[in-house]
């Protein structure tokens, strides 16, 4: 009677993600680059989800083995240049603001030094300001 019913597998406990060593990732990605190989077939053969394999392959082509190993995104050269230019512009603005602050501090110091003599000659010395 038990032959009539399909078997059911019960999974208990928390499932954990598999950790793929860098060498294994590189081997699988290289396998997809072989002529006639499809990502779906390679993924099935190695027990990897096709979308994960597509991601590894994209990371490998964009950033090499370092990106695949770190599982990080890759920033393109154009974006890096744009960000570097933005940093340079912000540094220039910071330099201008620093110079303005120094000039204003110097002017404030000179004004404070002249203030007592100006108050003595001021017509408003009777306190009716």
UniProtKB/TrEMBL annotation:
<feature type="coiled-coil region">
    <location>
        <begin position="73"/>
        <end position="107"/>
    </location>
</feature>
<keyword id="KW-0815">Transposition</keyword>
<keyword id="KW-0175">Coiled coil</keyword>
<dbReference type="Pfam" id="PF01527">
    <property type="entry name" value="HTH_Tnp_1"/>
</dbReference>
<comment type="similarity">
    <text>Belongs to the transposase 8 family.</text>
</comment>
<dbReference type="InterPro" id="IPR036388">
    <property type="entry name" value="WH-like_DNA-bd_sf"/>
</dbReference>
<protein>
    <recommendedName>
        <fullName>Transposase</fullName>
    </recommendedName>
</protein>
<dbReference type="InterPro" id="IPR002514">
    <property type="entry name" value="Transposase_8"/>
</dbReference>
<comment type="function">
    <text>Involved in the transposition of the insertion sequence IS2.</text>
</comment>
<dbReference type="InterPro" id="IPR009057">
    <property type="entry name" value="Homeodomain-like_sf"/>
</dbReference>
């Amino acid at each position: 009677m038990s032959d009539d019913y399909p078997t059911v597998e019960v999974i208990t406990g928390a499932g954990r993600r598999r950790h793929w060593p860098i060498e294994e990732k590189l081997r699988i990605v290289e396998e997809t680059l072989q002529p006639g190989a499809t990502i779906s077939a390679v993924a099935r053969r190695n027990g990897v989800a096709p979308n994960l394999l597509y991601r590894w392959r994209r990371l490998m082509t964009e950033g090499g083995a370092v990106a695949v190993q770190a599982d990080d995104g890759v920033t393109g050269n154009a974006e890096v240049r744009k960000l570097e230019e933005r940093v340079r512009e912000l540094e220039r603005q910071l330099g201008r603001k620093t110079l303005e602050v120094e000039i204003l501090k110097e002017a404030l110091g000179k004004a404070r030094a002249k203030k007592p003599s100006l108050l003595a000659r001021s017509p408003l010395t009777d306190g009716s300001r």
